[in-house]
Amino acid sequence: MNFIVNILSLGIPFSVALLIASLGEMFNQRAGVFNLGCEGIMAMGAFLGMLVPYSIGQGGPTSGMYNVLGLGLAMVVGALLGIFFAFVVVTFRAPQGIAGIGLQMFGVGTAGTLFRHFIGGTQSVPGIGNFPIPGLSKIPFIGPIFFSHNVLVYLAFLFVPLAWYILFKTPWGLRVRAVGTNPRAADSIGIQVNKVRYQALAVGGALAGLAGAYLSLAQVKMFSDEIIAGRGFIAVALVYFGHWHPVKIMGGALLFSLAQALQLAIQGQGINFPYEFAVMLPYVLVIIVLAFSRESQLLGPTSLGIPFNREKRI
Amino acid sequence: MELTQKKITNLRMEHITKRFPGVLASDDITLEISEGQILALVGENGAGKTTLMNILMGLYQPDEGRILINGEEVHFRSPNDAFAAGLGMVHQQYMLVANMTVLENIALGFKAAWSPYKLDLGMVRDRITEIAKKYGLVVDPDAYIWQLSVGEQQRVELVKTLCLGARFLILDEPTSALTPQETDELIVLLKNMSSELSIIFISHKLQEVKDLSDKITILRHGAVVFEGNTHEHSPSDIAALMTGHEVDLPLNEEPAPEGVPVLDIKNLNVKSDRGFLALKDLNLTISSGEIVGLAGVSGNGQRELAEAINGLRKVESGEIQFYGENIANKSPHHIIEAGMGYIPEERNTEGIVPSFSLKENLILKDTEHDEFSNHAFLKNKAIDKNAEDLRVKFDIRSPNISIAAGSLSGGNIQKVILAREISRRPKFLIAVYPIRGLDLGAAEFIHKQLLEIRREGIGILLISEELDEILDLSDRVAVIFKGQIQKVLDRKDANRRSLGILMAGVKDDQTV
Ligand SMILES: Nc1ncnc2c1ncn2[C@@H]1O[C@H](COP(=O)(O)OP(=O)(O)OP(=O)(O)O)[C@@H](O)[C@H]1O
Ligand SMILES: [Mg+2]
């Protein structure tokens, strides 16, 4: 029983970076653009997020405020990188796959270089501590699993219904879905297709930045070159996995992270199981589920990856 | 631009010129229309009708020329500007988002319902109800677009345009996918509406043009070749002016062929997209060398039948015997290789790959055959020659054979599909609305082609809502109603009246 509680209470905070990044990527893709540069934006977010508390706030009494500043900076720069990406793929209609890989390398490389310049070696920050919710966190089993995490964990899960609401119940969400599915129709009815795509990419970038900062401030509490460890790419895969729907994406993020927690637990418990296989587990699981989940083309953004050009008929 | 409620008493397009790579789509066009008038814009496929209207709506920028409303020059940089001035357009290719509901599609343009944090769908719903009542146009606001038939989508487009408050309507081939009855209703509706708004109406069906319009403008190769008052000209005059020669639709007057049954459908059950049975124990047999017309109001199972035969829709139970083999639930590839030809209803999504070139689209089904491929390599010379030949033979209007098929005009896309399917010489052909969107000259040509391949012994299932087309071409006529064949008539027994009664679902024993 304890083993299960451990896995669950470990897996849930693990899922947060993936969840935030993939919800951001969901907005990108719903608007018809896939951003493979997510990983790069996350790396920048991770570096900038810890830079502020590290360089000015180190452990001081107001470190909470510096954490917030760090998160904010990560989001702002993330949004700017999203807009830069939009400039390349929306305005100049560059192929999205290639441009995304470029952004990924740029982000990871820049973050690493800046890190060596400003911080240097492995330095940890106090980061964002846990905030067990009074009362609720005392409930046996439920408490440690759901109510003993840092604030960002709670916020990330609140963001799932919020993202759903934005996507399906607001005019902006309607525009996003329309430009990702049939930009020509959206254009003919007066929607500014490229403007909406810019906005969606800015939102996606901000969330990717936040996800990165979560890793360096709340999960690992330090920065390293490998801190993102492919989570940006997993986030992109999770969007497909979750059929562009916030709730299913959350399911995917949880599945992956719980498998990861299980994997760590197996290693930690010294169970006699080849650790190489344990490490593979989460990835294999995602591939299996992807292979068996039926593609619902009808619901997804059918113009994903296609730049919009009004005077071109195709 | 400010939203105005001002009336459009006069709209004028002056010296409009628009070039696309290799095409002069609009050649110094001047056009004028006053309040309460209905102007019919006609011309062959690729003449430039849609382009001109896209310019008027701010979708394309003209290279030269200007637009004046009530004598004042206007600049439409996007459709928003055109909406603001009171213009609205129903496009030839529907502008609907397939994975959203009717309600959401209309809300997309209904800015009054947009508050920053909430989309007021209730307000849009009320507006739809209001328009539906006022004009008698019934749509289901909660249906997803992908669930609707083409005819229903067309109605949604019209409702959408009216909901958004258009005071000047542009209708680009609005009747091409409507049933004859729906067409009649639309004509009456538009006539009534013309008291309060001006309409530009594009159609290839000259009887409609005659019934509806006050003035007529004919385009050819991007230029105006004729302008006049509709009541002074007969439909056949207009046809001759349009094509440059007398149009004479051919008739199938030959004796019934003595072929053997080649397509034998037994107790076929197939579900629709919405999950209910669209075909219920349907039976139909077609022999080689005969044309069987399938008459019926659209939505009675025609689409499902065509898709099931071609392996594009799951068969729940029953058999489709094709040259002695049951092809039910076989793969489309298998069925194509067995000799089935198919002219699908949805030309852009099923008939062509829009981003592929014209010549590639013409060999899509034959990429594995020796004619066009040499083991792993394509035979480019043969492909080019094939495309050049078909372009001339089928009069496909395009600057060259390497242009993306999606950039062709609607009617020319249809010609590409027809050219491919007919020239492949299949053993059997399913033709769904083969002349939808074609100009009269092209329709005449296609009908001749269908009769020619019939003479070669190819059986044809002709699915159409145009009774004239069915009566002109068929050896036998089968009437479909609610997923079953009501009755199969010989040509001599079929006429508009008898078919109309059967199509409405009246069993024959009640009529005699
Ligand atoms: N966006 C575009 N890019 C390139 N060529 C185009 C484009 N739009 C139209 N054309 C070309 O301009 C010409 C006129 O096309 P248009 O669609 O206006 O014809 P149409 O009169 O509406 O024909 P139809 O009756 O078949 O609909 C065609 O040769 C077409 O290939
Ligand atoms: Mg057209």
TrEMBL record, chain A:
GO MF annotation list: transmembrane transporter activity
Membrane-spanning residues: 6-24, 36-56, 68-90, 97-119, 139-167, 198-217, 223-242, 249-267, 273-292
Alphabetical list of InterPro entries matching this protein: ABC_transp_permease
One GO cellular component term: plasma membrane
Matching CDD domains: TM_PBP1_transp_TpRbsC_like
Keyword set, alphabetical order: Cell membrane, Membrane, Transmembrane, Transmembrane helix
Topological category with respect to the lipid bilayer: Multi-pass membrane protein
Subcellular location(s) of the protein: Cell membrane
Protein name: ABC transporter permease
Organism whose genome encodes this protein: Sphaerochaeta halotolerans
TrEMBL record, chain B:
Lineage: Bacteria, Pseudomonadati, Spirochaetota, Spirochaetia, Spirochaetales
Residue stretches making up the ABC transporter domain: 11-246, 263-507
SUPFAM superfamilies, alphabetized: P-loop containing nucleoside triphosphate hydrolases
Protein name: ABC transporter ATP-binding protein
Keyword Iron in annotation: no
Swiss-Prot/TrEMBL keywords: ATP-binding, Nucleotide-binding
KW Nucleotide-binding (keyword) present: yes
InterPro entries documented for this protein: AAA+_ATPase (IPR003593), ABC_carbohydrate_import_ATPase (IPR050107), ABC_transporter-like_ATP-bd (IPR003439), ABC_transporter-like_CS (IPR017871), P-loop_NTPase (IPR027417)
Gene Ontology terms, MF aspect: ATP binding; ATP hydrolysis activity
One Pfam family in the UniProt entry: ABC_tran
